[in-house]
Design goal:
By secondary structure, the protein is an all-alpha fold. Helix content is about 80%, strand content about 0%. α1 crosses α2. It is globular and about 60 Å long.
Length: about 200
């Protein structure tokens, strides 16, 4: 990277460290395509690549003070990206190993744990499809709360007001529950209940 561009990135990162959203937006637009193309090349999935890029930028914002002091910002960013990609494949490998173990240890009869596991996976995929229909801000707040386990206080640190976080969570959960009102499963209800 040219020295003048590196200087500009470092300057923006110092501003991001002070919670400057415009500086964060500039960093986002500078790196998002490069992150996306790297993730896409490795995962071969547009959806997964987009999800990984989103996770990297959420982590960048959460760790902004730490990132602002990085000696090699670009190296730090791509390490974050590689760690997210690695975590994705590690999760896939663990799921595959778990399924194989369950299949090996379970007699194949009706109502077996394998079938239950597949049904649960289908329900979670349906939930993900519903979540993807939420407005962007609601989706981010919901995912941070229910899927990444962040408390409301941790989400407030992203400079989203407590009132906004509460409203986004309530609206997201209301939308999901409405969607599943007819024949909603216990898994779906439980996955949305604990964040209130």
């Amino acid at each position: 990277m040219p020295e003048d561009k590196l200087y500009e990135i470092r300057k923006l990162l110092l501003q991001v460290g002070e919670a400057d959203e415009d500086a964060f937006r500039a960093i986002f637009y500078f790196y998002k395509e490069r992150f996306y193309s790297t993730a896409l090349k490795i995962t071969h999935s547009e959806d997964i690549a987009e999800e990984i890029v989103q996770e990297v930028f959420i982590s960048l914002w959460i760790k902004r003070k730490q990132v602002a002091s990085a000696a090699n910002p670009e190296g730090y960013f791509f390490t974050m990206l590689n760690n997210s990609i690695y975590a994705h494949f590690r999760k896939l490998a663990l799921e595959k190993a778990m399924k194989k173990k369950v299949v090996e240890q379970t007699p194949h009869n009706e109502g077996s744990p394998v079938e239950e596991m597949l049904l649960a996976k289908e329900k979670m995929e349906m939930l993900e499809a519903v979540i993807s229909q939420l407005p962007a801000q609601q989706r981010i707040v919901y995912k941070l709360s229910s899927q990444q386990g962040l408390s409301r206080e941790q989400i407030y640190q992203l400079h989203i007001s407590p009132h906004t976080v509460k409203n986004h969570l309530q609206q997201a959960i209301r939308f999901i529950r409405t969607y599943y009102k007819a024949g909603a499963s216990a898994i779906v209800w439980l996955s949305t209940w604990h964040v209130l």
